[in-house]
């Protein structure tokens, strides 16, 4: 018999909020550091994992930037991307939109071309060999200057075809989106789409700024939107996607526990929320683990999972035809799934015919 858990496992999924450097598992960190003749301040994989205790966003970012220092060669960027893609292939993810943090590498003397070429080739190989489609989004680190972001944007221009959009990440508080108005204006002029982390640790006001001043197509995190009813109304009316990362939010103490997370509340209110992993090597899981954990904590049913996945397909940066193909694939999957014995006599059904099983 199918359960919500098997639905989560089998349903085709898309991920829209994943920092590729945040998928660096300790095992690969050691392998790459050895290959590059570097030493780590840890003796074992277990020691690394033990260090992953965070109290807020900054405490995580300090360790995260330290970990990614092992990445130096094009092969390193290829390997980390490839490892992530293999993981999500096993989780039935068919489309992913990946962030990378160029400044965290260029500041160490790594050429922009080395970073983007390694990542791009892994994405191409996964498309050909695993059938995973993807997009690449370049993030500016908001704690750095607007001049540094502008310089990074210029470095990206020769790779325009490989990068769909620009984003904003790192330490949110004290670095409002409006700091980056000229860079995002230039990025839009050059044809990039825009997104921004906003309302993760920061207030609803930062979400307003991202929407109105940076013209973003999606909000990354955005969980603080619920503090502003007028904002929620706009996000619902315009179906502006929120890329929510449940395990991340608990690890960084945005919520005290998953059972206190507002994902279900946001979904029920009609917001276009999606489930994502953020930094899976640091926060305890990839997309399926996020779905499983939040399903259990918030008692999500089949219909909730279906809607979360559908939202993510609708929120992708794919073209209209590619998006429709994904949505068709989802509908086909759901109708086969319903036929395969999900239905039990005493179940209650929602209006689409999915039984409201509680597991
Ligand atoms: N970079 C990687 N993960 C991040 C997060 N959760 N918030 C801001 N910047 C990040
Ligand atoms: Zn993030």
From TrEMBL:
InterPro entries: A_deaminase_dom, ADE, Ado/ade_deaminase, Metal_Hydrolase. Zn(2+) binds at residues 17, 19, 197, 278. Signal peptide: none annotated. Binds 1 zinc ion per subunit. SUPFAM superfamilies: Metallo-dependent hydrolases (SSF51556). Residues 12-332 form the Adenosine deaminase domain. Catalyzes the hydrolytic deamination of adenine to hypoxanthine. Plays an important role in the purine salvage pathway and in nitrogen catabolism. Belongs to the metallo-dependent hydrolases superfamily. Adenosine and AMP deaminases family. Adenine deaminase type 2 subfamily. This is Adenine deaminase. It comes from Candidatus Brocadia sinica JPN1.
């Amino acid at each position: 018999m199918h359960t919500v858990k098997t639905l989560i496992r089998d349903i085709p999924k898309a991920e829209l909020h994943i920092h590729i450097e945040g998928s660096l598992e300790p095992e690969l960190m050691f392998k790459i550091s050895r290959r590059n003749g570097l030493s780590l301040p840890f003796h074992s994989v277990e020691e690394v994992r033990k260090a992953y205790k965070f109290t807020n966003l900054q405490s995580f970012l300090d360790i995260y930037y330290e970990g990614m220092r092992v990445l130096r060669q094009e092969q390193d960027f290829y390997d980390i991307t490839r490892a992530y893609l293999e993981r999500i292939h096993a989780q039935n993810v068919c489309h992913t939109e990946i962030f990378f943090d160029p400044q965290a590498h260029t500041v160490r003397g790594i050429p922009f071309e080395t970073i983007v070429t390694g990542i791009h080739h892994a994405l191409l190989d996964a498309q050909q060999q695993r059938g995973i489609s993807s997009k690449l989004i370049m993030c500016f680190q908001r704690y750095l200057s607007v001049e540094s972001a502008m310089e990074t944007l210029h470095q990206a221009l020769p790779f325009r075809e490989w990068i769909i959009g620009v984003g904003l990440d790192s330490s949110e508080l004290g670095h409002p989106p409006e700091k980056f108005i000229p860079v995002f204006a230039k990025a839009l002029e050059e044809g990039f789409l825009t997104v921004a982390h906003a309302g993760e640790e920061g207030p609803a006001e930062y979400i307003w700024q991202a929407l109105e001043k940076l013209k973003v197509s999606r909000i990354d995190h955005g969980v603080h939107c619920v503090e502003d009813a007028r904002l929620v109304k706009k996000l619902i009316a315009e179906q502006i996607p929120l890329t929510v990362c449940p395990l991340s939010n608990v690890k960084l103490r945005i919520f005290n526990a998953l059972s206190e997370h507002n994902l279900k509340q946001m979904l029920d209110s009609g917001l276009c929320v999606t489930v994502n992993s953020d930094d899976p090597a640091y926060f305890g899981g990839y997309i399926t683990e996020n779905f499983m954990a939040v399903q259990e904590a918030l008692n999500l049913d089949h219909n909730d999972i279906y809607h979360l996945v559908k939202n993510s397909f609708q929120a992708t940066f794919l073209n209209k035809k590619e998006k429709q193909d994904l949505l068709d694939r989802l509908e086909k999957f759901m109708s086969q799934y319903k036929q395969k014995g999900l239905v039990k006599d005493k179940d209650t059904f929602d209006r689409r015919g999915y039984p409201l099983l509680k597991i």
